[in-house]
Amino acid sequence: MPEVTGARAGALVLEGGRLPGAPEAVDVLLDGGRVIELVPDGAPLTGAAAARAERIALGGRWIVPGLYDRHVHLSQWAMVSRRLDLATASSAAAAATLVAGEIGRGAGEIAGFGYRDGLWPDAPSLELLDAAAGDVPVVLVSADLHACWLNSAAARRHAVSPGTDGVLREDECFRLVRELDDIADTVLDQWVAEAATRAAARGVVGVVDYEMRWNRDDWARRAAGGAFPLRVAFGVYPQHLDRAIDEGLRTGEPVPGTGGLVTVGGAKAITDGSLNTRTAWCFDPYPGLEGHAHPAGLATVTYDELVPLMRRAHDGGLTPAVHAIGDRANARVLDAFEAVGCRGSIEHAQLLRHGDVARFARLGIVASVQPEHAMDDRDVADRYWRGRTDRAFMLAELAAAGVELALGSDAPVAPLDPWVAIAAAVGRSRDGRAPWHPEQAIDVRVALAASTGGAGAEVRVGGSADLTVVELDPFTATIDELRGMPVAATFVGGRSTHSSLG
Q1: In this structure, what is the dihedral angle of CA atoms 78, 79, 80, 85, given to the nearest 10 degrees?
Q2: Residue 419 burial (CB count, 10 A)
Q3: Residue 3: per-residue pLDDT
Q4: Which H or E run contains 98?
Q5: Residue 173 burial (10 A CB sphere; 0-12, 13-18, 19+)
Q6: Is residue 462 a contact partner of residue 35, using CB atoms and an 8 Å limit?
Q7: What pLDDT is attached to residue 8?
Q8: pLDDT for the residue numbered 7
Q9: What is the predicted pLDDT for the residue at 181?
Q10: Which residues are within 8 A (CB) of 320 and not within 5 positions of it... i.e. 6 or more apart?
Q11: What is the pTM of this model?
């Protein structure tokens, strides 16, 4: 993550806190956006700022470095709560029934989110959704964001031509979602601010935002003056790459006027689809897709396109951040990183070959992984990737090889809550189910370090004053306690962005 700048408050002493795994209480002096001093509770603080510092009693709570979510779509996450929730739909017919219910309550158009059709007993169809919705336009976005199911009225409104299943996939879906996201700036900014406040209440100090818009102006506007509750690094997509380079954007550099809160992120490219949509590009065909146009998934950006794109980004000062989910996509993206000779990240790194783990380490490529996706995808993987699921979400193997892990949510695909990601990485389980491939679980210290934007798992003198205060010791908490970790306070540059302290 970039050097911490801006968003600094005055001097502050956090009194009587504890560090994970240590029984003794400590006092922590913050000033200038940094941890200046750390001493046993009650011991004299020698830093010059101590005399003028505000003091906050932590009452024995635990202090950890502030949490980052390294992969979000923040505008879409902000909009999800205002859309029809399809997470409970266990079939296409059930989703259509939810739509019909909304229309019965007077809805004049419907945008829904969250269906997962990989295990449905029936298939989406234009006819089914037309029967449920009639002339009311309906667009339902899958939970993985890689497919949209719509009816004829929505197809006419958006001038698209889905097949008999009514489904748009990959680039066609992304274009339609961008139209749905065309909301007045003042409205969307308010929704994003509310979502950011909720994130701060979960201990989040920063996110990497991969919305497909030209994000620089959005974030400059939202964080003007430096009072926004999160640090944000924003991604640049291929359609905006030339503009970003021409305007001098460079990864890690701050956006003027945002108090250092907003920085330029990486150059994003999407090279394949997702597992639930069966478009993740794999070496082996998906069961049941024999004879399909793309039986092993889809390469949405070819190698011959990807290499010059990455080289253009790297030469222009933008670090490549490349989406790859399938094992073949990951292998090909690693080939591209080697050809270009640069570092960067693979976003998702979900399905891998064992031999490619060493290549991540040798090339210095960050594995930006969303562990909660393993909980969402385990049954789909067991069906469509059976016999190979030991190579799904290989966190332990990546960590053992020395690969840098960066954990995130891909919100709204999973909740914007690093504690959920940490719990999934450590426990490989949810809802009381047996752990899924527990051999790929990682230690909580590794998971926490992968969730702090490079700050590690422990608060250190000289480190950033981006801090999270929690009610339980994360090193000894159960998996369920990690998932619902109570957060008492969050600080960005020493400035309080959330507090339930008395």
Answers
A1: 150
A2: 26
A3: 47
A4: helix 92-104
A5: buried
A6: yes
A7: 60
A8: 55
A9: 83
A10: 266, 267, 269, 310, 313, 314, 337, 340, 342, 344, 345
A11: 0.95
* pLDDT tens-digit readout, 381-419: 999 999 999 999 999 999 999 999 999 999 999 999 999
Checking if the pLDDT of 361 tops 90, the result is: yes
Tokens of 274: 């997702």
The phi-psi region of residue 286 (left if phi > 0; otherwise alpha if psi is between -120 and 50; otherwise beta) is beta
The token pair at 272 is 């394949």
Neighbours of 422 (CB within 10 A): 27
Task: Say how far apart CA 449 and CA 456 lie, in whole Å.
Answer: 4
Average pLDDT for the chain = 96
**What's the burial of 121, exposed, middle or buried (CB within 10 Å: 0-12/13-18/19+)?**
exposed
Contacts of 64 (CB under 8 A, 6+ apart): 20, 203, 448, 452, 457, 458, 459, 467, 468, 469, 470, 474
Beta bridge partners of 245: none
| Chain mean position to CA 76 | 12
- The string of pLDDT tens digits covering residues 44-76 is 999 789 999 999 999 999 999 999 999 999 999
Per DSSP, 111 falls in state E
Cβ neighbours of residue 148 closer than 8 Å, sequence gap 6 or more: 139, 140, 141, 142, 167, 168, 172, 173, 176, 177
CA 234 to chain centre: 12
**C-alpha span between 422 and 428 (Å, rounded):** 10
The residue assigned the tokens 């070496």 is 283
What DSSP designation does 413 have?
A: S
